[in-house]
Amino acid sequence: MSKLKLKIVDFKPGMELKVKGVPKPNIDRFSINVCDSKDNIALHFDVRFDYLGEHRVLVLDSRKDEIWQKPVRSENFPFQWGQEFEVTITFADDKFYINQHNGHVLQFPNHLGDKQYDYIFIEQATVSGINIK
To answer: Other CB atoms closer than 10 Å to residue 114's CB: what's the count?
Structure first.
């Protein structure tokens, strides 16, 4: 499994994280995770091409103390193997806004309730750019 782990400086409410990349060829899924540790993931943005019986669906979830919480699924799926994507995650106090490269915006609650996250994990995608402002 290919994983990129970044220690970032204080991803706080009002900030924006922009990720550009390309899904690796013929993978079953890739993900972008905003977290404070491997056990506590505030936002799990999971792009599923063909994973666990789900085809071309986005799954948003959070994980607290190694336990997955309440997943939310979206059929809006603008991703293709080998084609560049851009995802912008805006952190508000109580939720995340996820803007996909086709203009569709998803919302996901900040279930962990933290006011700062320090790590980004990106799995199964070749990242060409990350910008935090």
So the answer is: 16
51-100 pLDDT, tens digit per residue, is 999 999 999 999 999 899 999 999 999 999 889 999 999 999 999 999 99
Rounded to the nearest 10°, the torsion over CA 8, 58, 97, 34 is -20
Mean pLDDT score of the chain = 91
Tokens found for residue 71: 């997943």
* Model pTM score: 0.91
* DSSP calls for the chain: --EEEEEEEEE-TT-EEEEEEEEPTT-SEEEEEEESSSS-EEEEEEEEEEETTEEEEEEEEEEETTEE---EEE------TTS-EEEEEEE-SSEEEEEETTS-EEEEE-TT--S-EEEEEEESEEEEEEEE-
